[in-house]
Amino acid sequence: MQDGSYQELIDELEEWRSSGLTPRLWLRDDDVTAPSAELDMLLALTQDHAIPVVLAAIPKPASEALRARLEDIDAVRIATHGWSHDNHAPDGEYKQELGLYRGLNIVVEELTRGVTKLRQLFGEKLSALLVPPWNNIDDRLLPHLNGIGFQAVSVLGSRLTNKRTTDLAVTNVHLDIIDWETLRCHDEARLVKELSRELRKKREGDKGPIGILTHHLVHDDAAWQFLVRLFEVTQKREGCRWIDGDELMQSAIARAAKPVTPEATSAPSTGQEESPVAH
Q: What is the pLDDT of residues 108-153, one digit of tens each?
């Protein structure tokens, strides 16, 4: 693959550089539960390219084996991915674990249990970041999250902004590389175009970090190839930075303390409105 297929992205990164600005990217990978060949591939790829990663782990099935696998990898941070990743929404509604269909107390208790378990497993690797399953959360739950220990929430696109929270920061991902209708990677040219568009919006707007969303367990060859190429292209561009989970949280909290700059009113088209089968 030649750099030409990424020219729009390269040009946009050059606009950042020539403007004296530093684009910040971050990687979030969801549905982590246990060691696997796919997780090994993700970890090898990110380590080879020095890319930090936030792993959204599902607490209920999270294992001691996972703790041991991640123990010596400094660039990994763990986010809480609900409790069991079970859908409790009625038939016909968008999938949701963090809705209040079963009552507020049950959801709060499960999240509390999840944070406790992940803290026992991962200690300082655990971030105070909540990643709602299916990127979906009931607004009425938000005021209770700070008391559980969360400082920030991450969903997809513009589904949640700081305008809708009080004690919580928001640090969203913007590009889901998986097409959940086909369970294949989105077309590479489309991904490059959407990422370039998001970078342009951030350069002209709030300059916040841009999140890339992956799901290692469902990656096809095209998904792995896209990540390799993305890492290579961005690392060649002077000033472009992939930030780790600690810097991500610091940035999110600092930005939340400033006057709100609403995110775009509509999310980019590449997988940003996931189908109900999406994770």
A: 999 999 999 999 999 999 999 999 999 999 999 999 999 999 999 9
Contact in structure between 194 and 173 (CB atoms under 8 Å): no
Domains of the chain and any CATH numbers: 3-256 (3.20.20.370)
Residue 112 amino acid letter = T
* pTM passes above 0.85: yes
Q: Rounded to 5 degrees, what angle do the CA atoms 81, 86, 89 make?
A: 115
Q: pLDDT digits over 223-240, tens only?
A: 999 999 999 999 998 889
CA atoms within 13 A on the CB side of 40: 4
User: What phi and psi, each to the nearest 5 degrees, are found at residue 154?
Assistant: -130, 120
Q: What is the DSSP string of the chain?
A: --GGGGHHHHHHHHHHHHTT---EEEEEEEEE-S--HHHHHHHHHHHHTT--EEEEE-TTT--HHHHHHHTT-TTEEEEE--SS----SPTTSPP-SBSSTT-HHHHHHHHHHHHHHHHHHHGGGEEEEE--GGG-B-GGGHHHHHHHT--EE--BTTSS-GGG-SS-EE--B-EE-EETTTTEEPPHHHHHHHHHHHHHHHHHTT---EEEEE-GGG--HHHHHHHHHHHHHHHHSTT-EE--HHHHHHHHHHHHTSPP----SS--SSSSS--TT--
